[in-house]
C-alpha cells in the first residue's frame, strides 16, 4: 500500500504529516550538528506521510530540503558546488585518505530508482566524494520494502552518517526518532510490528 496524504492535510499535522492525534512534533529532538545536510528530495516523495527526510529536517537545524523533479521547475545545480561537500550514496568515489570530514553532506531522498536517476542527471553529484554506510541489521523494522539488504530510509542513512561523522550519541536520537515514526505510522494504519507499505 502506498502512503497517501490528503492534499489539504485534513486531520494531519502540517509539519510531520501524521494524523493530528499521533503528531510527533513535540517528541522530535533538536540536534545541533557540525555537518550541514542538504537533502535533495524527489518531487514524488514530497507529500508522502512516510517520508523520513521530513523528520530529519525537523530534528536537524542545519538541514535544508530542496525538491527535485517538480513538473515545470528546473533544479538549480549550483547548490551542489560548495566546497567541502560530500554525497551520502553507495558506490561513489571515496574521499582522499587524509581528507577532513565534510562540512556539508548531500543526501538523496526518493526510491532507489529515483536516487540513481538523480545521480545520472546531475553530473555535479558524480564528482563529489562519497560517504558509504555499512548495511543495517537484517531484522531492522521498515515502513517500505528496500530493494536490497543495504537499503535504508533517508532518516536511517542520515543517522548512520551522523554516527560516523559526529558520534553515536547524536545518532541514537535519530534512530529513536525513526523507530517512533514507524510506531506512529503503523498505529495510524491500525497495524503493529514492522511491516512495510
3D architecture notes:
With 197 residues, the protein is an alpha/beta fold. It has helices at residues 52-59, 112-121, 123-126, 154-166, 168-188; strands at 36-42, 63-68, 85-88, 104-109, 130-131. Helix 1 (52-59) runs parallel beside helix 4 (154-166), helix 1 crosses helix 5 (168-188) and helix 4 packs antiparallel against helix 5. The chain is globular. The model has no long low-confidence stretch (mean pLDDT 89).
Keywords:
197 residues, alpha/beta, five-stranded parallel beta sheet, 5 helices, 5 strands, 28% helix, 13% strand, globular
Concise account of the structure shown:
This protein has five helices and five strands; from the N terminus they run E-H-E-E-E-H-H-E-H-H. It has helices spanning 52-59, 112-121, 123-126, 154-166, 168-188; strands at 36-42, 63-68, 85-88, 104-109, 130-131.
Mean pLDDT: 89
Main sheet: strand order:
2-1-4-3-5
**Largest sheet, if any?**
5 strands, parallel
- Say how many strands there are: 5
Calculate the terminal CA-CA distance, rounded to whole Å.
Answer: 5 Å
In DSSP terms, counting alpha (H) and pi (I) runs of 4 or more, how many helices? 5
Strand content: 5-15%
> Fraction of residues in helices?
25-40%
Bulk shape? globular
Amino acid at each position: 500500500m502506498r502512503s497517501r496524504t490528503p492534499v489539504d492535510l485534513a486531520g494531519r499535522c502540517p509539519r510531520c504529516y501524521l494524523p493530528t492525534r499521533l503528531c510527533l512534533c513535540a517528541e522530535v529532538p533538536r540536534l545541533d550538528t557540525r555537518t550541514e545536510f542538504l537533502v535533495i528530495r524527489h518531487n514524488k516523495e514530497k507529500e508522502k506521510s512516510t517520508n523520513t527526510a521530513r523528520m530529519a529536517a525537523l530534528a536537524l537545524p542545519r538541514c535544508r530540503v530542496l525538491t527535485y523533479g517538480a513538473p515545470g521547475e528546473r533544479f538549480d545545480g549550483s547548490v551542489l558546488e560548495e566546497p567541502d561537500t560530500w554525497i551520502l550514496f553507495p558506490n561513489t568515489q571515496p574521499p582522499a585518505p587524509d581528507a577532513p570530514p565534510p562540512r556539508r553532506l548531500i543526501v538523496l531522498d526518493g526510491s532507489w530508482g529515483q536516487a540513481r536517476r538523480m545521480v545520472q542527471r546531475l553530473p555535479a553529484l558524480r564528482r563529489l566524494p562519497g560517504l558509504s554506510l555499512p548495511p543495517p541489521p537484517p531484522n531492522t523494522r521498515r515502513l517500505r520494502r528496500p530493494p536490497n539488504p543495504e537499503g535504508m530510509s533517508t532518516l536511517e542513512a542520515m543517522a548512520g552518517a551522523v554516527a560516523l561523522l559526529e558520534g553515536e550519541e547524536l545518532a541514537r536520537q535519530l534512530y529513536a526518532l525513526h523507530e517512533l515514526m514507524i510506531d506512529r505510522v503503523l498505529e495510524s494504519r491500525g497495524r503493529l510490528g514492522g511491516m512495510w507499505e
